[in-house]
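User
Please review the sequence:
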Amino acid sequence: MTKYETAILFDPELPEDRRKEFLTKLEGVITSFGGETLKQDDWGIRKLAYLIRKKHNAYYTFLVYSGKRGVVEEVERNIKIFDGVMRHMTSRVEYEIKPAAAAPVAEESPPGPENGGETPDASRPADGAPTA
């Protein structure tokens, strides 16, 4: 199945329970099309780059989901009906969704041809001249 990401900008004055109720409804729409919600990322209230409906802020939510043909059209139809959404955008994603990633571990590179297989010696000057 194809994966999609929908960015939704909610009105910042919209009560939290109405927003959560609407997102639950969208999850139901997605499952009705044989898909699943892979990730829901709430960014909270952020400042907009320009005014939308005379508002400076919006509540950002991102949904990543998969589904069969027609799921995007139905999700967007429901978004357009709901009066608490200021803007939305859906795009197809190609990357894999991973669970919370652990912090990357810094690996030391083995001695290689870039330094002649030797480890740098702090007692020698950088220009390679021998010390007396």
